[in-house]
């Protein structure tokens, strides 16, 4: 049967399509003979392989889901040679290219791997050159699944893989040319920026069958301006306000209420901005840890205010003597360490009244003593407030330095 078919094929198609005078291009009769051979590979000698060359242009990244499910508009161009579609332009009124229905011609079995969904806008025509080379443009809307590395969000770089396979396939353009073409379309559009397109060819073997595989790595980087403006800068402003709140009088109850209001506002801010953060089971982004630590620092700041308020109001219930170890550690050593300046009008330490004094003299020393103890407890509270404030500043400075250093390292590496 193969021999009979080959003889019939040669008799029908002598090598070139027939063009008649008055026709712009090959005749319908000669093309009809090619259409009848649509199920068969277009090679006069079946031992000659039909190689398909492919390339694509990345137009846009339309969205990112939990596993970097990217909606990509791809331009898949398949080039292959149809030995039956050859004609002489001089005999065909100078026609060098025609379009034919793709369903009437043989098409290669190009398979796209690593794809969850393929919502394609099919192009019904192919473009045929007079040499028999065919170009097939297809606009593909692919939903690819790649592992989402979000730890460095919003300064993250993602690497998505696309794999094309066929029996005989090779790239039509170099990977640098594909990257340059795609970068022109993605240069000023969307949230993502194309960094590079890499690739390699390999052979996949299934028993005695061998498939050519082309693997593309699309490296894209997120544009962080939106998240820096909407997340990092407002959060930094709220932390700055929390630091400045330490300059409120520590003996005033307004400081505690102000800090509680600030924490409430920061919590509402996190709830509103939660939709902007990527969610995935692979890990937590560093910016999420940053927000959590900022909230924890605000809570620590509130606890510090509660402690200072308790110390400053210690004498409101009972005017107790300050323990000796408190005077030595806090009023002497810690005060000198943090360079605490004592007010000029600070009262002297209380003195015991002589035992031989009459009771009338001791009765007048009560208010004076209560005022003196209150002043001393106030000094203890101020010293602790100065100390805790500097420790708080040190924690925030070290934390900010670590975060900025890590992000700078990732940016330089990307």
From TrEMBL:
Function, as annotated: Forms serotonin (5-hydroxytryptamine/5-HT3)-activated cation-selective channel complexes, which when activated cause fast, depolarizing responses in neurons.
Q: Which domain of life is it from?
A: Eukaryota
Q: Which PROSITE patterns match?
A: NEUROTR_ION_CHANNEL
Q: Which residues form the Neurotransmitter-gated ion-channel ligand-binding domain?
A: 40-224
- All copies of the Neurotransmitter-gated ion-channel transmembrane domain together span 231-363
Instruction: Kindly report the protein's main subcellular placement as a broad class.
Output: membrane
According to its UniProt record, which protein family does this protein belong to?
Answer: Belongs to the ligand-gated ion channel (TC 1.A.9) family.
Renumbered to this chain, region (Disordered) spans 349-368
* Gene for this chain: LOC101157359
Query: Has keyword Glycosyltransferase?
Result: no
Annotated transmembrane regions: 56-74, 225-248, 260-277, 289-312, 391-411
The record lists the catalysed reaction(s) as: Na(+)(in) = Na(+)(out); Ca(2+)(in) = Ca(2+)(out); K(+)(in) = K(+)(out)
Protein localization? Postsynaptic cell membrane
* Topological category with respect to the lipid bilayer: Multi-pass membrane protein
Kindly provide the name given to this protein in its UniProt entry: 5-hydroxytryptamine (serotonin) receptor 3A
Q: Does the keyword Zinc-finger apply?
A: no
List the Gene Ontology MF annotations in alphabetical order: excitatory extracellular ligand-gated monoatomic ion channel activity; serotonin-gated monoatomic cation channel activity; transmitter-gated monoatomic ion channel activity involved in regulation of postsynaptic membrane potential
Example GO CC term: the record gives:
plasma membrane
GO BP of this protein: chemical synaptic transmission; monoatomic ion transmembrane transport; regulation of membrane potential; serotonin-gated cation-selective signaling pathway
Report the CDD domains cross-referenced here: LGIC_TM_5-HT3
List UniProt keywords, sorted A-Z.
Cell membrane, Disulfide bond, Glycoprotein, Ion channel, Ion transport, Ligand-gated ion channel, Membrane, Postsynaptic cell membrane, Receptor, Signal, Synapse, Transmembrane, Transmembrane helix, Transport
């Amino acid at each position: 049967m193969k021999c009979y078919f080959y003889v019939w094929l040669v008799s029908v198609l002598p090598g070139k399509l027939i063009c008649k005078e008055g026709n712009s291009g090959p005749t319908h009769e000669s093309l009809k003979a090619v259409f009848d051979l649509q199920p068969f590979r277009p090679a006069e000698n079946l031992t000659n392989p039909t190689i398909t060359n492919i390339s694509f242009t990345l137009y846009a990244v339309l969205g990112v889901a939990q596993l970097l499910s990217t909606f990509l508009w791809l331009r898949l161009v398949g080039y292959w040679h149809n030995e039956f579609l050859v004609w002489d332009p001089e005999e065909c009124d100078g026609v060098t290219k025609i379009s034919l229905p793709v369903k009437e011609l043989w098409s290669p079995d190009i398979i796209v791997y690593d794809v969850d969904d393929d919502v394609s806008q099919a192009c019904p025509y192919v473009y045929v050159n007079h040499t028999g080379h065919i170009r097939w443009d297809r606009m593909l809307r692919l939903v690819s699944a790649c592992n989402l590395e979000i730890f460095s969000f919003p300064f993250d770089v993602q690497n998505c893989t696309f794999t094309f396979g066929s029996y005989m396939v090779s790239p039509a353009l170099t990977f640098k040319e594909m990257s340059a073409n795609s970068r022109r379309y993605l240069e000023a559009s969307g949230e993502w920026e194309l960094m590079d397109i890499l690739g390699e060819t390999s052979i996949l073997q299934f028993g005695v069958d061998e498939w050519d595989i082309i693997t593309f790595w699309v490296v894209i980087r997120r544009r962080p301006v939106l998240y820096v403006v909407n997340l990092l800068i407002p959060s930094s402003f709220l932390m700055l306000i929390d630091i400045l709140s330490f300059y409120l009088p520590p003996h005033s109850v307004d400081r505690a209420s102000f800090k509680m209001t600030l924490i409430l506002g920061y919590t509402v801010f996190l709830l509103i901005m939660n939709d902007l953060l990527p969610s995935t089971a692979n890990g937590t982004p560093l910016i999420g840890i940053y927000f959590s630590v900022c909230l924890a620092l605000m809570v620590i700041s509130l606890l510090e205010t509660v402690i200072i308020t308790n110390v400053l109001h210690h004498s409101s219930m009972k005017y107790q003597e300050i323990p000796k170890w408190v005077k030595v550690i806090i009023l002497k050593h810690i005060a000198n360490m943090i360079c605490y300046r004592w007010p000029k009008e600070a009262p002297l330490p209380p003195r015991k009244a002589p035992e031989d004094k009459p009771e009338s003299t001791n009765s007048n020393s009560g208010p004076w003593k209560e005022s003196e103890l209150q002043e001393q407890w106030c000094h203890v509270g101020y010293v602790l407030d100065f100390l805790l404030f500097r420790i708080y500043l040190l924690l925030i400075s070290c934390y900010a330095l670590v975060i900025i250093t890590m992000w700078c390292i990732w940016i330089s590496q990307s």
